Amino acid sequence: MSTATERILTSGRGDRRVRRDHTAPEPRRLIRFGSWWWALPAITLMVGAIYLATATGAFYAFTNWKGLGDFDFAGLDNFARIFTDPKMVTALVNTLVLAAGFVIGTNVIGMMFALALHRTLRTRHALRALMFLPVILSPLAVSYLWRFIFEYNGPLNAALESLGLETWQRTWLADPTWSLWVALFVMVWQASGIAMVIYIAGLTGVPEEIEEAAALDGAGAWTRFWRITMPSIRPAVVIALTLTTIQGLRTFDQIIALTGGGPVGATETMATQVWKQAFVNNNFGYGAAIALVLTLIILVFAVIQQAAGRPRPEEG
After folding, report:
1. Which of 3.40.50.720, 1.10.3720.10, 3.30.530.20, 2.102.10.10 is the CATH number of 54-311?
2. How far apart are alpha carbons 184 and 75 in whole angstroms?
3. What b-and-e string marks burial along 232-265, b requiring 16 or more CB atoms within 10 Å of the CB?
4. Hey, where are the domains in the chain?
5. pLDDT 10s digits, 226-254
6. What are the helix (H) ranges across 168-283?
7. Residue 125 and which of 20, 93, 132, 241 are 20 to 30 A apart at CA?
8. What local confidence, expressed as pLDDT, does residue 92 receive?
9. Where are the alpha helices (DSSP H) in the chain?
10. Which DSSP symbol is given to 310?
11. pTM
């Protein structure tokens, strides 16, 4: 005996069969194939402006070109110079330190604000806008503002003096001990908003019912966060980590505006060295080699993060 459910399913299959028999005729192959050509201008522009330019720079990385005139092939001399020159080694270490601190600081602060402004506060929308505001500002403008604040006669030292903390006053941007951390602070301050937005987007997909059920079962706030929230927002975490890693490794604007790479090279990064070698010292081949090494470092970190962020087979 057929049940009502089976009759409904059978009738549904029949309806679908009828609909398939009366579908519109398939469009002509020329139209379907021709639609691909609409993307050709954008593809051409991207290949010419990005991939072709990158390949050209990679070619010059193996030469001693000065930017004008003829050049000779230098083989791997430029790359050997990168890892033997003390200034470049310092720039590489600074780049990795800034990137690590930037990734940790930006994502931790962004996650904290995302959790705080996700559901509870009535003023969360206004607070989100205020938190995101530095992201849309020019990095150069923000850095010049903070440079004024960190000047020896600037507002920060004046505030410390008014509080009786003269011993805390520093030449923040001229002190090799502090200048790198000041630059890191400015970078994290400006970029934490973008991590917050990414995490808020991920948190909207976490069902409240699961968190409430876990709370009723006695799970604490940390347990709920680590066991429920983090696995649910893993794609958002991977995106935020990848974007902040790339941004941290190619830091340029803030360093140039705050310290110019000084004092005595204490804040030099690989990105600033690319600019100085290629466009200040006219060592275009050497600058291209530094840029290629930096590109490969960014690529390696991005691939590792994407691979680490993939769901495990047992997680579906």
Report:
1. 1.10.3720.10
2. 36
3. bbeebbbbbbbbbbbbbbbbebbbbbbbebebeb
4. 54-311
5. 888 888 899 899 999 999 999 999 999 99
6. 179-203, 208-216, 221-224, 230-232, 234-249, 253-258, 270-275
7. 241
8. 94
9. 4-21, 29-34, 40-46, 52-60, 77-84, 86-116, 124-136, 139-150, 155-162, 179-203, 208-216, 221-224, 230-232, 234-249, 253-258, 270-275, 284-308
10. S
11. 0.82
105 and 184 in contact (C-beta within 8 Å)? Answer: yes
How many residues are present in the chain? 316
What dihedral do alpha carbons 223, 208, 203, 218 form, nearest 10°? -10
What CA–CA distance (Å, rounded) separates 94 from 186?
15
| Residues 271/158, Cβ–Cβ less than 8 Å | no
- Reply yes or no: is the peptide bond before residue 263 cis, omega within 30 of 0: yes
